[in-house]
Inverse folding.
């Protein structure tokens, strides 16, 4: 019985360790989120370097009235991360309100714009920079410039 109990303890330790490893491995995937609304932008997550942070900060300051940025340097990010994050920020700057989530395999952007042409131009630049196998999901809707935003959203 003692041998059986030891086996179960060992199995439990292996399962716990595997779960901890999986959680640690999942937390190692870089993620950057960008939220923009009313001339303000909030940037949170992973950057590839202090240079990437500077580029995002400088670009955001040029494109938005208010910038709130909190980033960290993970051990690894995909090649081209700096360019992808900057181009995502530029695309979002062409919206009235938007959220973006960038990770190693996909970029998702949701929001509204009153200038779909300008947004699509920036989105095309972002598409051209995607890594092999990476997906881009853009769900940005057009709203009328002179219309009531609340009324258009309800429609």
């Amino acid at each position: 019985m003692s041998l059986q109990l030891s086996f179960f303890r060992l199995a439990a330790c292996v399962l716990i360790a595997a779960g901890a490893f999986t959680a640690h491995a999942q937390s190692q995937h870089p993620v950057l989120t960008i939220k923009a609304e009313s001339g303000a932008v909030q940037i949170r997550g992973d950057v590839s370097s202090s240079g990437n942070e500077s580029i995002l900060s400088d670009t955001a300051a040029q494109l938005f009235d208010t910038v709130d940025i909190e980033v960290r340097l993970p051990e690894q990010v995909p090649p081209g991360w700096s360019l992808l994050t900057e181009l995502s920020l530029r695309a979002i700057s062409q919206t009235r309100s938007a959220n973006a989530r960038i990770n190693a395999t996909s970029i998702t952007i949701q929001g509204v714009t009153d200038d779909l042409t300008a947004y699509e131009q920036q989105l095309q630049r972002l598409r051209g920079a995607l890594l092999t196998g990476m997906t881009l999901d853009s769900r940005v809707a057009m709203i009328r410039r002179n219309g009531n935003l609340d009324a258009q959203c309800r429609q």
